From TrEMBL:
<keyword id="KW-0732">Signal</keyword>
<protein>
    <submittedName>
        <fullName>ABC transporter substrate-binding protein</fullName>
    </submittedName>
</protein>
<feature type="domain" description="Leucine-binding protein">
    <location>
        <begin position="44"/>
        <end position="366"/>
    </location>
</feature>
<dbReference type="Pfam" id="PF13458">
    <property type="entry name" value="Peripla_BP_6"/>
</dbReference>
<dbReference type="InterPro" id="IPR006311">
    <property type="entry name" value="TAT_signal"/>
</dbReference>
<keyword id="KW-0029">Amino-acid transport</keyword>
<keyword id="KW-0813">Transport</keyword>
<dbReference type="InterPro" id="IPR028082">
    <property type="entry name" value="Peripla_BP_I"/>
</dbReference>
<comment type="similarity">
    <text>Belongs to the leucine-binding protein family.</text>
</comment>
<dbReference type="InterPro" id="IPR051010">
    <property type="entry name" value="BCAA_transport"/>
</dbReference>
<dbReference type="InterPro" id="IPR028081">
    <property type="entry name" value="Leu-bd"/>
</dbReference>
Length: 415
């Protein structure tokens, strides 16, 4: 370990900064309209955002998604809006609390009469209220929370109003496990997961995908989200001969896990969730230890010119470079919703859902160009092929490459 000063991005915003940024988003003009013409006088099509903007380190993801949604609305409105009407956004901060998130969802649908909802920031909140939009037939475009079950229908054959443009735990696990299976240095594998719903949902995916790919974990240990010393769990993995650890947790505990590895001098290959891209991870781990895990994101740090132009446009509004992917998710979710409403010719929730499940025209986003991204059975807009290998280098996110990544084929992604 050396005493390097973290990159400025790694310092992270303060809790007070969270509050100021959230207040700015909530106070921002709801519409981005032309100054003249009939569009400016038309009743807006109201959309809602429901997610954490201020209460946790993950709030930076929520704020970034709102920035992306607002940028997309600005572009859609400049191009004439949807059905002759502008798009408008109503923002609700759920403070990372399921009861508050449930209340917000009911308020947005029943009182604000939104046509669709974006969010939430936290997977557990989506799982707490997904029955509400399904009952009231209001589409939800998830752009942050990644739990696998979010977009599953409430029962087989039922109409499903939960869609997503973003990372999915199961897709990440399938991709990471394919890497482990193909890597000649993998050796014995083990699991380390936090005890939250997020961590245990990830553990279920890890166990099922490992079985599908013919791998067996020789050890599986858990830790609490607030733990700062995981040396006992790591000692058990080391005693079992684990050479590759698959870790599912939020940013801060992954960082504390790296510090615990440093304490006992045990560094297996670490394949982990996309939460490692969060500032909370590098703040907890420090810039040197942060370089050890490998993880996945939906936007590479090798940005295309198209992505770079968008990055330059919105970067002043983001907390950090690492939040850019969430802005991309928010933008792409918005233009897909706009395309579905145009195709449907109305803003009825059932009609929007049906159009999303059978979009006729390609839609250009910043993660990719979408060509029939959804169907009745598939509500995930991004796939294993859309994952981008990532790591930290010199206090900044960087694209990760090695021979294993380069040799992965479509048939490797099982589970």
């Amino acid at each position: 370990m050396t005493g390097k000063t973290p990159h400025p991005e790694a310092a992270g915003p303060t809790r007070r900064g969270f509050g100021r940024a959230a207040a700015a988003l909530l106070a921002a003009p709801a519409l981005a309209l032309p100054h003249r013409g009939a569009l400016a006088q038309a009743e807006p099509i109201r959309l809602g955002f429901n997610g954490d903007l201020s209460a946790s380190p993950s709030a930076q993801s929520g704020r970034a998604a709102v920035v992306g949604i607002q940028a997309a609305m600005e572009d859609v409105n400049k191009a004439g809006g949807v059905l002759g009407r502008p798009l408008g956004l109503t923002v609700r901060d759920d403070l990372s609390q399921p009861p508050k998130s449930i209340q917000n969802m009911s308020d947005l649908i029943d009182n604000e009469k939104v046509a669709a909802v974006f969010g939430p920031t936290n997977s557990g909140n989506a799982l707490a209220w997904k029955h509400i939009p399904n009952q009231k037939r209001i589409p939800v475009m998830g752009c942050i929370g990644s739990a696998t079950d979010i977009t599953k229908p409430v029962r087989e054959g039922a109409d499903n109003y939960m869609f997503r443009i973003g990372s999915v735990d199961r897709i990440q696990v399938v991709t990471l496990m394919a890497y482990a299976k193909k890597n000649p240095r993998t050796g014995k594998i083990g699991f380390l997961t936090e005890t939250t719903g997020y961590g245990q949902g990830g553990l279920k995916d890890l166990q099922e995908v490992a079985q599908a790919q013919g791998l067996t974990a020789v050890a599986s240990e858990k830790f609490n989200v607030g733990d700062t010393d995981m040396t006992s769990q790591l000692a058990k993995l080391r005693a079992a001969g684990v050479e590759t650890a698959l870790v599912w947790a939020q940013g801060t505990p992954i960082g504390q896990l790296m510090r615990s590895m440093d304490k006992i001098g045990y560094f297996p290959i670490v394949l982990t969730s996309w939460a490692a891209d969060n500032l909370s991870f590098i703040n907890a781990a420090g810039p040197e230890l942060a370089e050890k895990p490998i993880f996945l994101r939906t936007v590479s740090e090798d940005r295309t010119p198209h992505q770079q132009a968008f990055f330059d446009r919105i970067r002043p509004k983001l907390d950090a470079d690492s939040a850019f992917s969430f802005a991309v998710h928010g933008y792409d979710s918005t233009v897909l919703l706009a395309a579905a409403m145009k195709q449907a010719g109305k803003t009825d929730g059932a009609a929007i859902r049906a159009s999303l499940e059978d979009l006729k025209e390609k839609v250009e986003g910043y993660a990719k160009t979408y060509d029939h991204p959804f169907s009745r059975a598939e509500h995930e807009g991004l796939t294993a092929a859309d994952q981008r290998w990532t790591c930290w280098r010199n206090g900044k996110l960087a694209a990760f490459r090695d021979e294993v990544v380069q040799n992965l084929q479509e048939g490797d992604f099982k589970g």
